[in-house]
């Protein structure tokens, strides 16, 4: 059901985050490792949906599993497909069709996806601050620039009905 999308990103112990996306009873949850700048990669993939390229990807390292998000823009909507590859060491950068299994999929308005991912990142920043984020994620700082890009494009292009998206972001 449209409007039912849930997304969260929660820092766990040192070097781990729990990424959760759900629509109704269909939930996907992944424990993402800190070897890559995962939250930044996701924010940039969503931000890319506001440009001319229809397909965006973000891969998460679950050591050894790779979870790959394929975001495909279709007009005002985005089809979200999450693939699981058992061995990230060999699958990283490979075609989506080979070796991956479907873990989760949904089609959502871009305005909803953009809003939910932005809100999740804002929640992380509010909870931990930039210093706290770096302490937990260690290899990468909080992706401030990526979040700002997404906020700017979401506000500009999505006509989001949420109050916060019609005003300047208050940190
Ligand atoms: Zn919004």
List the helices and strands and how they pair.
Elements: E1 5-11, E2 16-23, E3 26-33, H1 38-48, E4 55-61, E5 66-74, E6 77-85, H2 88-91, E7 101-109, H3 110-137, H4 144-157, H5 163-166
Antiparallel strand pairs: 1-2, 2-3, 4-5, 5-6, 6-7
Helix pairs in contact: 1-3, 1-4, 3-4
The structure holds zinc ion.
Strand content: 25-35%
The CATH C-level class name: Alpha Beta
Shape: globular
Number of E-state strands: 7
Q: Would you give the CATH topology? A: Secreted effector protein pipB2 fold
Uncertain segments are: none
Kindly name the structural category: alpha+beta
Sequence of strands across the biggest β-sheet: 4-5-6-7
Bound molecules: zinc ion
CATH architecture: 2-Layer Sandwich
| Radius of gyration, whole Å | 15 Å
Tell me the domain tally.
Answer: 1
Individual helix count: 5
> What's the end-to-end separation, in Å?
31 Å
Rounded mean pLDDT score:
93
Query: What's the helical proportion of residues?
Result: 25-40%
Q: Write the element-wise H/E pattern from the N-terminal end onward.
A: EEEHEEEHEHHH
How is the biggest beta sheet arranged? Answer: 4 strands, antiparallel
Structure described in brief:
With 171 residues, this protein is α+β, with helices and mostly antiparallel strands. It has helices at residues 38-48, 88-91, 110-137, 144-157, 163-166, and strands spanning 5-11, 16-23, 26-33, 55-61, 66-74, 77-85, 101-109. It is globular.
């Amino acid at each position: 059901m449209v409007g039912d999308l849930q997304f969260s990103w929660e820092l766990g112990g040192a070097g781990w985050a729990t990424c959760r996306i759900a629509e109704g009873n269909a939930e996907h949850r992944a424990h993402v490792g800190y070897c890559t700048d995962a939250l930044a990669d996701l924010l940039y993939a969503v931000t890319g949906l506001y440009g001319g390229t229809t397909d965006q990807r973000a891969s998460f390292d679950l050591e050894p599993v790779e979870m790959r998000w394929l975001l495909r823009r279709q007009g005002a909507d985005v089809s979200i497909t999450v693939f699981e590859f058992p061995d990230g060491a060999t699958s990283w950068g490979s075609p989506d069709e080979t070796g991956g299994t479907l873990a989760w999929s949904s089609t959502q308005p871009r305005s909803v996806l953009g809003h939910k991912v932005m809100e999740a990142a804002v929640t992380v920043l509010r909870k931990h601050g930039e210093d706290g984020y770096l302490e937990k994620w260690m290899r990468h700082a909080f992706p401030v620039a990526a979040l700002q890009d997404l906020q700017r494009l979401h506000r500009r292009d999505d006509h989001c009905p949420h109050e916060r998206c019609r005003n300047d972001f208050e940190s």
